[in-house]
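can u do me a favor
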């Protein structure tokens, strides 16, 4: 855990941003095709996106979950995230957002 924390600090990532970084870079293909600095920027933008768009019980409302998925998909397209890995990344990011929301007071 200490190594992971230090890894995030070296990249200038908060713990939430680091969690999204790991969610985005879970697939080895992504690491081969994307620059690390882009993944860092994506993780930071994802964290801001989730914080901005979360509402009370957003993870229990289908319309709110669908909106969040669309926003994440747009962000992946913006950064040219590999399309083959996008579906799995969206699922992982949404799960991570649910965990993040459980730990943050709205």
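np, heres the sequence
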């Amino acid at each position: 855990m200490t190594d992971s924390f230090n890894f995030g600090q070296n990249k200038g990532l908060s713990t939430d941003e680091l969690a999204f970084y790991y969610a985005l870079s879970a697939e080895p293909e992504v690491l081969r095709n994307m620059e690390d600095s882009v993944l860092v920027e994506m993780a930071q933008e994802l964290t801001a996106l989730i914080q901005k768009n979360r509402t009370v019980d957003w993870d229990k409302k289908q319309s709110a979950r669908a909106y969040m998925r669309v926003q994440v998909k747009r962000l992946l397209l913006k950064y040219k995230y590999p399309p083959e890995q996008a579906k799995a990344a969206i699922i992982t990011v949404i799960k991570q957002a649910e965990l993040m929301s459980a730990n943050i007071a709205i």
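The chain has six helices and no strands. hope that helps!!
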